[in-house]
Design brief:
301 residues; eight-stranded mixed sheet; globular
Amino acid sequence: MELGMVGLGRMGANMAERLVRGGHRVTGYDPGATAREQAAARGIGSAASLAELVTGLPAPRVLWLMVPAGRIVDETLAQLLPLLAPGDSVIDGGNSNYKDTMRRAAELAERGLHFVDSGTSGGIWGLAEGYSLMIGGDEDAVEHLRPLFETLAPAPDRGWGRVGPSGAGHFTKMVHNGIEYGLMQAYAEGFAIMQRKPGFDLDLHQIAQIWRHGSVVRSWLLDLGADALGRNPALDGIAPYVEDSGEGRWTVAEAIDLDVAAPVITASLLERLRSRESDSFADKLLAAMRNEFGGHKVKAG
C-alpha cells in the first residue's frame, strides 16, 4: 500500500520506516527541512509541501497524521481537505482527545472522506518491537487499511484491532495512558521506599532485575526502569520534574463524568503536578498552621 505520512518527528519517522521495511511505499511531509532530509536518508520519500504530498499519491489516497494533538490537527486538516477527494482516508495516529476525533470524523464524513483514529503505543521501541494500535472508525475503512496496521503491529494477528466507531481508538488510548500513570507511580514509590531504607544497602538495579523474571509485578515498564537504574543507579542529573501529556487529565475527567472511582490514576496525576512545585505555597501554609496551633518549628526558606 502507498500512503503519505504527515509529521516526521521521531515517532512518525519510525512508523514510516517500519512500513517501508514491510513493503509499503511511504512519502513523508514535515514543515522542517531537516526532518524531511533525515527521513529521506531512511528510505522514506519526501515532499516539500502538503499539496505535493497529496498529488503524488494514488487514489484513493491514504494520509497518516503524526502531529501534536489539538489545534495543529485541525490546522493540518484544514490544509488537507481542499486537496482530498471522496473515498480518501485520513488516519490520526496521535494522542487526540476522543471528543475532537468524533467531531472531525463527522466533518470529514460529510465530504465523503474516511477518518480513522489509531491510538498508538510503543514509543521509541516501536520501530523494532512493533506498535500497539487501538483503532476506531468505520469497519470498511479499517478493513481497507488492514495491511498498514498488520505491518505496524508486533505481528499481523496481535497487538492491534478495531475497538469501535470513530473516537473509540483515542478513548481507549486515553485510558491506556491513565493506567500507565498509575503503574509508573507505584514502581516509583516502591523503589523510593527501598532507596530510603538504612542498613540494608539495597541494590535497586539488582532488585529490578530479580523482579523482571517470575514476579507478578514484571512488566515492560519495569524492564525500562531496570535499564535506567543500570545506567544511572543514583539517577544523577535527572530533575524530579514529571511532565504529563494530557491523557491522564482526560482519563480522570472521564472517570468523574461516568461516576467511576479512579483513585490510583487520579493520585498519580496529582503527583506529577506536585513534582513541578519547587516553591510550594501549600506546603508553606501547612508549616505555618502547625506552628500556629502547636508551636512546631518552622524551617527558614
